[in-house]
Amino acid sequence: MAHLHDILAISQEITRRGCTILNLADGKVSWSAQQHRNLGLKYGSVEPSIAALIERILPDERHLLLEAFEHCVLSGTCFVLELRAQWQDGGDHVLRVCGHRVAGDSYERTWFACATVDITDQRRLHDQLLPACCDLEHAQEIAHLGTWTADARTGIVETSSPEAYRIFSMHQDSLPIRLEDLNRRIDPGDLERVVAARERAFTVPGERYNCQYRAVHAHDDVRHVHSLADVTTDAAGSPLRMVGVIQDITEIRHAQQEIQRLAFFDDTTVLPNRVAMRQRLEALLGAPGPAMPVALLIVELPSFREINLTLGHVNADTLLGDVARRVAGMLDADMHLSRTGNAQFTVIVQGSQTQDAARIANAIATAFETTFAIAGVHYDIGAYVGTAVAPLHAREATELLRKADVAVHQARKNGRSCMVYSADDDPYDPARLALLGQFRSAISDGQIELYCQPKVSMATGAVLGVEALVRWRHPERGMVPPAEFVPLIESSELIHALTRHMLQESVRQSLAWRQEGLSLPIAVNLSTRNLNGGNLASDLQALLADCGGTPDWIGLEITESSLIVNPGASIAELNTLSRLGFQLYIDDFGTGYSSLSYLSTLPVDVIKIDHGFTSNMLSDKRAASIVKATIGLAHELGMAVVAEGTASREIRDALLAYGCDEAQGYYVAPPLPACEFAQWVRTREMHH
After folding, report:
1. How far apart are CA 163 and CA 147, in angstroms?
2. What are residue 640's DSSP bridge partners?
3. Which run of H or E residues covers position 396?
4. How do residues 432-446 score in pLDDT, each as one tens digit?
């Protein structure tokens, strides 16, 4: 027995478990040596008793132990308490106290056993870790992230993460959760994929379980979750546990869907936007295999801006929604309708239906013949539809879009509701646009040359002056036709640099001729932008002053069309130039859109009849009548007349008979390099 007593004492010392035994029959109490140590007492220093045990507990918790003792002795109910105790040296400790009533061998004598464990270090560690655990739980709650483990053999899932329970839609007091239980929470549409991914992780070494799926909670609440886990193995490589995290990504998924919607859909009409249309078009055109025909229809609403400005954005947005619904109702399910601009919709038609693209375009245009009700009032909106077809017109999305844009532009320009792309109607060549970029350096590199076309007297044949013409000698392409670059330059701010260069060259050339005894004015063409720039008159004066020139050296040619953009500013600038002494010409007369009333207010000296009339006057009586009437009108207003396009002696003779003053055209001479003009004049004078 002594030997067993020693073994028990050593065991208690190792496990730090002390023991109190109360004989309920005679009231005797005994403490083990470890019990003394747990109470901070030297062995034998205190007579063991229940009272002495209770005295070690802090006063405000003693009643808990006393009540537990009494209840256990009377009813036999076991108890476990964690109580604060104070040793004689003043140190604070925490004891775990367990009580149990034990029946004796004869069932007459009963014992009460009470064990204590000093858990001060564990409690201190717990208190230190508690804030970190709380922070971790809080962080997991914020991130909707939980941790879990699953036993590879039993499939039992364990977790101490409240967030994991919430994501699993399980209560923390649930019976042991197994992977099969979680499977019942997975959306049936995702279950097979999830189980397969889990099995691969268990069976394929190094395979990580990585799966996103939908979890169905109570009341059919669907949550999107993302689960990641690794499998731990034993020394033999057999799987032991799956350790992982699970995150509720529902809000992330909704945010992604919203970003997707904002990126690829139009808020007003809920139709795909230009980005989505472009992606679909590129996918269709880039699909492997034989090229599948694709038709692209662009629908433009010409009066939408007026509706927007007149009725406001709210009513305009309502109109766009009505337009979208009307057009969508006419299309088959596999046709793609999108809103690709403020007042623009696009339809993609693919496959065999491409043959019906023209019919579909006409049907869409016809649908706009029915008015739209906006704020209780019916409005006639109208639409233009342009169509381009791949691979007939283009093989790439960018080019197909461009050509559909050209088609709708031509429809609008020609007043036709529908047009299919035609290369003959396409004045927009990307290569020409590239020239615009090259032109910036062409002036400084000396590629721009001055050519001159002479004007002669109808009556005497004497040379009276020249028109300055621009020519571009491109280092790679050679001489670039003016029609390919002049319209582009006129539509950009580069026109100011070009006009300045032409004026500089004309003044320089005029000075050179005068030094040779040739005093002829050079007429330079001006654009709308030049007239509205504000510095033309002062720039001209400065150029002439630098070389001692006078305004009679330079004439200025304008077109009727250049006056209609800002007629007030243009006429004011022309009046300034006229007062300074510059001779003013109206070029291409009869082709513009100005009123004849402008002729009574413009300070114009010369009218130049457009070659379109002069070249046809011998075969077209109406053209001849217009030429004759123009000459008479100009003379009545005190203006001289130059006939452009004088291409033959017969035309020259007819013009002379009508009283025309000057001739310009290939019958007189083609455009000549400025450096060759003086010699041409001398040669002409020798033969006249």
Report:
1. 8
2. 606
3. none
4. 778 788 888 999 999
In a shared domain, residues 419 and 366: yes
- Ramachandran bin of 521, using left for φ above 0, alpha for ψ from -120 to 50, beta for the remaining angles: beta
| pLDDT > 90? residue 142 | no
Nearest by Cα to 584 from 613, 564, 566, 563: 563
Total domains, the chain: 4
Same domain for 470 and 405? no
Q: For the segment 621-649, what is each residue's pLDDT rounded down to a tens digit? A: 999 999 999 999 999 999 999 999 999 99
Sheet holding 177-178, edge to edge: 177-178, 156-158, 145-151, 239-248, 222-233, 209-216
Residues 498 and 636 in one domain: yes
Residue recorded with tokens 């002439």: 544
Q: How confident is the model at residue 595 (pLDDT cuts 50, 70, 90)?
A: low
| Rounded CA separation 81/429 (Å) | 92
CATH of the domain at 408: 3.30.70.270
Question: What six digits make up the tokens of 654?
Answer: 């007819």
Q: What is the rounded average pLDDT for all residues in the chain?
A: 88
Is residue 436 assigned to a domain? Answer: no
Q: Are residues 567 and 678 in the same domain?
A: yes
CATH of the domain at 540: 3.20.20.450
The backbone torsions φ and ψ at residue 79, rounded to the nearest 5 degrees and listed phi first, read -145, 155
CATH of the domain at 33: 3.30.450.20
Secondary structure of 6-58 as H, E, C letters: HHHHHHHHHHCEEEEEEECCCCCEEECHHHHHHCCCCCCCCCCCHHHHHHCEC
Question: What pLDDT does residue 598 have?
Answer: 67
The answer to whether residues 666 and 550 belong to one domain is yes
Structural domain span for residue 87: 1-120
- Residue 258 in domain: no
Look at residue 547 and tell me if it is in a domain: yes
Kindly report whether the global pTM for this prediction surpasses the value 0.70.
no
Q: Return the amino acid letter for 100.
A: H
Residue 437, domain member (yes or no) = no
Q: Would you say residue 377 has pLDDT above 90?
A: no
* pLDDT value of residue 7: 66
Three-state DSSP at 633 gives helix
Three-state SS for 334?
coil
Asked whether the beta carbons of 627 and 615 are under 8 A apart, the reply is no
Q: SS3 of 374, please?
A: strand
One domain for residues 248 and 272: no
pLDDT at residue 86 tops 80: yes
Instruction: Tell me whether residue 123 is exposed, middle or buried, using C-beta atoms within 10 angstroms of its C-beta: 0 to 12, 13 to 18, 19 or more.
Output: middle
Q: What's the CA gap between 606 and 640, in Å, rounded? A: 5
DSSP alpha helix (H) spans, 56-178: 59-75, 120-143, 162-168
Separation of alpha carbons 330 and 347, rounded Å: 11
pLDDT value for 76: 82
Rounded distance between C-alpha atoms, residue 234 and residue 240, angstroms: 6
Handedness of CA 194, 196, 198, 200 (dihedral sign): negative
- Which one, of 94, 218, 105, lies nearest residue 168 by Cα? 218
Q: Report CA torsion sign: 565, 567, 569, 574.
A: positive
